[in-house]
Amino acid sequence: MANIGLIMGAAALAFRGFSVGPQLMRLDMPVLIVSALVLALMLQDGRVEASEGVVLLLLYAVYLSQSLRRQADDDAPRQRPSLKTWAYLLAGVAAIYFGARYTVEAVNKLTTLLGLADVSLLALTVVAVGSSLPELVVSLTAAKKNYHDLSVGNVVGSNICNSFLVMGAPALIQPLPVSRAVADVGLPFMLAISLVFLVMAHSGRVSRHFGLILLLMFGLFIGRTMGAL
Hints:
Blueprint: H1 2-14, E1 18-19, H2 22-42, E2 47-48, H3 50-72, H4 83-113, H5 120-144, H6 148-173, E3 176-177, H7 180-201, E4 205-206, H8 208-226
Antiparallel strand pairs: 1-4, 2-3
Helix pairs in contact: 1-5, 1-6, 1-8, 2-3, 2-6, 2-7, 3-6, 5-6, 7-8
């Protein structure tokens, strides 16, 4: 919800819309819908089992292989990454690890301090928005420089990764229970906004008016979630 509603909505509104390339429409956008539908179906029984985690990871592997094959067919010139680039990458990985660790601890403590019975309420709002801030910066910067495929691909790829990899890998360690807030609020909104975004992108461009609709859907989602507190 944060990736599509907040980031894509803000990018469309701030930069008078953005275009969606044909390559994204052919592979990535359909996979986005499939990933949302598959995850929603798996969560119907109230948990993600290890076997379902394996299926999610296999689907992500297939998507990655198709993406890499598409890049291999691209004749664009390539450069070898420098040592500085690798250093930035390793530093980023370390920052993500410690950031994730302290985020989990902080959310658990906040849940206790606020007297909430369900930690997923904060996860659906505060954590979701916070973890989407890097995508927000990347997408807005890319849209400002007219790198529209980068702006859209960043969000679409992130959502696919969230549904397949981020849900699949932890399920191998321990089955993941699904809270009522996720089942009753998160899943329906996720499916709805994914389908709306697909319809908007089908014309090849997401206008400012469409961006406003996405932001309104995100605002409605936050309001509905906060109403459950």
